[in-house]
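Late entry, evening session. Most of the bench is empty. Finally got around to the prediction I had been postponing all week. Sequence below, unchanged from the version circulated by S.P.
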Amino acid sequence: MCKLSELPNIGKVIERRLNTIGIHTSEELVNTGSKKAFFRIKMIDNTACLHMLYALQCAIKGKRYTQLSENTKEDLKQYFNKL
């Protein structure tokens, strides 16, 4: 278990947003999942964008933003567009 800001793609801003919705550890983020975490952030921050969703997914997988597969990007984009 590590601090959220130690995960790839998670800076202080996203860490604060996650803390606000009750996610304080990497384990909590993994258990919540990127889509659910993003939805909860979007409910309190209407400016949350698709790139934040990508960042959350990559953080869970322990990958850099550039390593996100095209299939995963498309899935997340469709989810984002439905919100």
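Two things to note before I forget:
The chain has one domain: 7-82.
The radius of gyration is 12 Å.
Will write this up properly tomorrow.
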